[in-house]
Amino acid sequence: MNREMIKSKKTDDTCVHVKHSSGLDIYVTEMKGFSSVEALFGTKYGSINTMFRQKGDADYTRVPEGIAHFLEHKLFENEDCDVFELYAKTGASGNAFTSFDKTCYIFSCTKDNYKESLKILLDFVQKPYFTQQTVDKEQGIIGQEIQMTNDNPYWRVFFNMLRCMYHEHPVKIDIAGTKESIAQIDADLLYKCYHTFYNLNNMALSIAGDISADDVLAICDEYLNDCEDKGLETIFPVEPDSIVQSEFREIQPVGTSIFNIGYKCRACDGEERLRKATAAAVAASLITDASSEMYQRLLKEGTINSSFDYEIFTGDGYFCVIFSGESEDSVKVRDSIAAETKRLINEGIPEKDFQRIKKSAYGALIRELNNVEAVANNVINSHMDGVGPFDAIEVLSELTNPDVAEFMKNELIKDRLVMSVVEKEAE
Amino acid sequence: MQYKRTEIADGIGFSSVIDEKFKTCSLTVRFITKLDKATAAANSLAISQLSAVNSRYGTIAAMNEKLSSLYGASLSSSVSKRGDVQLLAVGASWITDKYTIGGENISREMLEILRDCIFSPRIENGEFDAETFAITKKDLLDRIEAEINNKRGYAIAKASEIAYKGEPAANSCYGTDETASPVTSAQAFEAYRKLLETACAEIYFVAPEDDKSVAEMFAESFGALDRKPQPVTYRTPSPAKSEPETASEEYNVRQAKMVMTFKTSSEDKEALKMMSLIFGETPVSKLFMNVREKLSLCYYCACRTYFPKGALMVDSGVERDNIDKAREEILRQLDDMKNGSFTDSDIEAAVLAVTNGLTAIGDTPSSYAGWYFECFCNDELITPQQQAERYRAVTRDRIIEAAKSLSLDSIYLMLNKEAE
After folding, report:
1. How confident is the model over A350-360, as pLDDT tens digits?
2. Do β-strands A318-326 and B24-34 pair in parallel, antiparallel, or remain unpaired?
3. What gap in Å lies between CA A283 and CA A202, rounded to an integer?
């Protein structure tokens, strides 16, 4: 068991990392003075992992869309009881989420009872129990969840944009799947996915709060079952750099029309992805900067409102810069974004603006260290992305103006700009 | 942690919460006034104008440039309601000077910016400047229009309109399209002036180190005003309708929403909360275990209490065809509560769940401000731990009485259009 103390050079914050003999990566962030404890036990398994094989398998297995999310729901049922009933005895608030590239089981509780809650978390995630009867029951609940998200215009506009960008990559499929795809799921398939992805070598635990790393590790020693690394391989279809279509519109009962406008960028991994995402965030901040001429012009003429914002969306095999907001003239917003991008590339980024935006990004990272939940989440996300817990702040401090300019020139390409709009119904 | 509240001017409270674990400072000024359909929109517009610009940074561009140079310090406004009261807050938050790269003193700058936002806004010809006002007004109108984008929140807002019909709480805290559209810059400025003169305010400063100059700054600024504060009533229970009312609307949605409002005249706040927890606030509650898990009718079916209005709401997302089934099951589960069909383990789980939430108060600056504001509204300063003890002291009989006190007031249905 290797134990290391990871320290941020900028803030002196620390985190204990252990590569446990079971195969699990464990991160404990001791945060003195906080009352709550946040824990995430996660696997690198999300909605995009639809094709995989293990050492010795001749062929890849392809599974129905939405199965990672379905599995997340079903893991909350043990053979003899519901996991929530166990948490009810400690008072912990338990939950879980499935994203594109990970599934995490979470609890938050008081520092006085985190040990019992941690035992419950480690235990149930390692004990799957699926029957056809319980699988059938879940179809109705998840069916309602799918209906609910289909009524969410922000969800619709986002996925419509991804479908404009990606030809093959499964990032374009809905995390929960469809009513039809989840109907193909049975208990055997769930076990197959579970035993493939819920191998501790593919998982991590992040826990933060006013806790002791020694106590956490003692519980891990007791509750973790050794896992053989089975050489999991996930593959994605070959995704071209080009987009599928430049525009998609849908009508929904919304009060204001909303848009997602995104540049499809080339994907990468690990530290390279962090550096690229950091440069992308500064570039997008410059484009959406409320003090810029473009922003002020669009705001004053009523084309945008204060909801205009950006997001850097990355993972295994996908990377895009997304601009979102409300507008009745999204074409003008898109054309303005493209023009502003071109202007910044041609004229260069004023050093004063670059330094200002960089300071602002630095402030945002400091703020996240103020919050137990944010810290626990950031630590597991960093691990899943193949970087260290405090690398983001280091990478940001090393970022230069030419790095951002180069990113814009190489990645914010007009031919790879797509627009998705959810328009309001005609009155 | 050190907490201290002082009355720094007529109707103005200043609370400082000093907790060394934080890396940020936050300062919020929360104006408290009656929620009134006639003034809600003008008040909302006034408060959003205050956080957009001030006399020194007179454009949104200039203010944004300054804030981003101060390590992305935030300046924001928010509008909400608590019972029949409208809450209008202007707040700022920034990283402490210790964490700046160049050792800059950003705290002083942010205090001055916030002070100027409130006491020295940008004014042109005796009203808010027209250009910024037009932008913030469009923002508010868009926000009102966009409420339907969040179907669950929209359904709850519509349910409140029906449940509290004729009472201030029936109104949106932002105003409506009809009431906000005609508001002029001069009217919003008058609303601002009136807020300074008549509204009570609670100020919260949450930081790792004390700074007495903050309270002094506000004492001086508010002290210079000629104030005639008008007190508000923080609790105004809403009477139950003699016959339950059902209202429905059709939309182009896939999933229907049902919000059931129950009313109570019970004064036993802790028992009502315990009843609500067992009934439908947790994943082991009766609604979750039966309506969702056993019958697979909903992805969510949950309840919450609104003690200031003496109400409890159950909201759910459900297939249109299953609405009757879901309603019957919800009422059956409530009957079980009234009949005492819950175990000591259910009570213990509720105590632990609510204690878990209370213990987390103090882990974020906003949770401190929220807790002490609730204490102020309830006119009783207690700790979260003392509150947890009160929940623990609630007996089974009190929970049954709380359940029995509930009567169905109204049902709001957001329906998907049926195929023709």
Report:
1. 999 999 999 99
2. unpaired
3. 33
> CA-CA distance, B326 to B294, in Å (whole number)?
12
- Across the range B184-210, mean pLDDT stands at 97
What SS3 string covers B360-411?
CCCCCHHHHHHHHHHHHHHCCCCCHHHHHHHHHCCCHHHHHHHHHCCEEEEE
Over residues A141-167, the pLDDT tens digits come to 898 889 889 999 999 999 999 999 999
Cβ distance A252 to A425 under 8 Å? yes
Q: A132: burial class by Cβ within 10 Å (0-12, 13-18, 19+)?
A: exposed
Both structure tokens of A355? 């330094």
| CB contact at 8 A, B30 and B201 | yes
Contacts of B370 (CB under 8 A, 6+ apart): B361
Q: Are B94 and A147 inside 8 Å of each other by CB?
A: no
- Kindly list the residues from chain B whose CB atom is less than 8 angstroms away from the CB atom of residue A85: 284
pLDDT at B236 over 80: yes
- Of chain B residues 187-226, which have a CB less than 8 A from chain A? none
ipTM of the complex: 0.92
**Residues on chain A touching B23 (C-beta within 8 angstroms):** 11, 366-367, 369-370
- The minimum CA-CA distance between B196 and chain A, rounded to whole Å, is 26
- The Cα A138–Cα A84 span in angstroms is 16
pLDDT tens-digit readout, B101-112: 888 999 999 999
- Rounded to whole angstroms, the Cα distance separating A405 from A412 reads 10
Cβ-in-10-Å burial (0-12, 13-18, 19+) of A222 comes to exposed
Paired with A88 in beta bridges are: none
Query: What region, left, alpha or beta, does residue B362 occupy, with left being phi > 0 and alpha being psi -120 to 50 degrees?
Result: left
Q: Cα dist. B250→A255, A376, B155, B320, B325 in Å?
A: 15, 42, 12, 11, 19
- Other Cβ atoms less than 10 A from the Cβ of A230: the count is 16
CA–CA gap between residue B272 and residue B206 (Å, rounded)? 31
- Which positions in chain A touch B296 (Cβ < 8 Å)? 137-141, 144
